[in-house]
């Protein structure tokens, strides 16, 4: 049994489960970034206020890409905060105002997200799903560089 895009239906279904998990984690990450953007204080305010905005705008685009990929594979993207918080491994950042604490939250969040993306990458390769595979490869390369840069800032 194949999907309308020629993938094995069972493998596509399993991929949508992983992508929904990624979607949930990205939604929590996105909300964290909004909070960091709004609440940052101190000497790094101008630098981080702009950087957090850049990150949440990028995350918003990725969230849409993930949801659309789930739909392309024949699944239904989760869309409630209840589902997101139940499934997410990204820690919720609450009332973070300090620069180092905020940047560390971003690094930790992206590290969790990378673990999910690598698992999806392996699963999509096994399913011969080049669309999901390419998306994960692009996300991973960008996020690895972001983690490297943020870790350099933290030193």
Fold blueprint:
Layout: H1 9-39, H2 45-72, H3 81-87, H4 99-126, H5 130-154
Helix pairs in contact: 1-2, 1-3, 1-4, 4-5
Descriptive account of the structure:
The mean pLDDT is about 100. About 75% of the residues lie in helices and about 0% in strands. By secondary structure, it is mainly α. The chain has helices at about 10-40, 45-70, 80-85, 100-125, 130-155. The protein has a single domain, classed as Up-down Bundle (Ferritin). The chain is elongated and about 60 Å long. The longest helix is centred in the N-terminal third of the chain and has 31 residues, at about 10-40.
Summary, kept brief:
With 155 residues, the protein is an all-alpha fold. The chain has helices at 9-39, 45-72, 81-87, 99-126, 130-154.
**pLDDT average, as an integer?**
98
- Taken from the alpha-carbon principal axes, the silhouette is elongated
Instruction: Assign a percent range to the helix content.
Output: over 70%
Order of helices and strands: HHHHH
| Strands, count | 0
Question: Main traits of this protein?
Answer:
155 residues; mainly alpha; Ferritin; 0% strand
């Amino acid at each position: 049994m194949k999907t309308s895009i020629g993938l094995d239906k069972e493998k596509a279904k399993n991929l949508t489960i992983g992508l929904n998990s990624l979607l949930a984690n990205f939604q929590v990450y996105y909300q964290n970034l909004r909070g960091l953007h709004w609440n940052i204080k101190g000497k790094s305010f101008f630098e981080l206020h702009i950087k957090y905005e850049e990150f949440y705008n990028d995350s918003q685009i990725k969230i849409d890409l993930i949801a659309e990929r789930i739909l392309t594979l024949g699944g239904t993207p989760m869309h409630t905060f209840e589902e997101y918080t139940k499934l997410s491994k990204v820690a919720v950042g609450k009332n973070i105002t300090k620069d180092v604490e905020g940047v560390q939250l971003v690094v930790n969040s992206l590290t969790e997200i990378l673990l999910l993306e690598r698992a999806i990458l392996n699963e999509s390769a096994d399913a011969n799903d080049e669309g999901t595979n390419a998306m994960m490869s692009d996300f991973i390369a960008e996020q690895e560089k972001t983690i490297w840069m943020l870790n350099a800032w933290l030193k």
